[in-house]
Specification:
Blueprint lengths: L5 H9 L3 H23 L2 H17 L11 H30 L12 H19 L3 H11 L5 H8 L3 H19 L1
Length: 181
């Protein structure tokens, strides 16, 4: 079955042939996993996304049309799954930031005991992670997120370039994002 073309294998997949599906998975999983891993930086997330791509492929097999190769479809599906993952991840980071560093006029969302406990745990987790950061990164992050200073104001106060401030804040957020997972 491995010698069959994508088109022939896909015809069998449309007939719910799991062996043909497995051959297509084996044919493209490594390439797609490499693509996804480069964008996510996490093998666990990359594997989850790859699984979602192939699950969606199986579930939508009746609606998909293949001309010669299934790879363009799978690559596009992987690209969109990565975009969805990034969007969900960014929303989660924003939510965590707002729990820990609420805006001045915004009421803290911790209205029940579960949310209060979560905020307390996240605050402790993030405080510990921030304490491990290099001094400049800590200062840039705290001046931005806690004191609400602009990039320009932080650069002036720390006597570093605006780009260095942006880089330090970005690195700090990346560390916190990894810790939050």
């Amino acid at each position: 079955m491995k010698e069959l073309s994508d088109k022939d294998l896909f015809y069998l997949v449309k007939e719910s042939n799991t062996q043909a599906f497995s051959v297509l998975f084996d044919r493209y999983a490594h390439t797609l996993l490499s693509f996804i891993l480069k964008r996510t930086g996490s093998i666990t997330d990359a594997e989850d996304i790859l699984q979602d791509v192939f699950a969606s492929f199986w579930n939508r097999r009746d609606k998909i049309e293949v001309v010669d190769s299934i790879y363009p479809y799978l690559f596009k599906a992987a690209k969109y799954e990565v975009i969805d993952w990034m969007t969900r991840d960014q929303k989660r980071i924003t939510h965590f930031e707002r729990l820990i560093f609420p805006l001045e006029n915004e009421p803290v969302g911790a209205s029940n005991s579960d949310e209060k406990l979560m905020v307390k745990e996240l605050t402790f987790l993030f405080d510990n992670e921030i304490a491990k950061m290099p001094t400049t990164m800590q200062s840039a992050f705290n001046l931005s997120r806690v004191e609400g200073l602009s990039i320009k104001e932080i650069a002036f106060r720390l006597s570093i370039s605006e780009q260095t401030v942006k880089n330090n804040i970005s690195l700090a957020l990346s560390r916190l994002k990894l810790k939050a997972k």
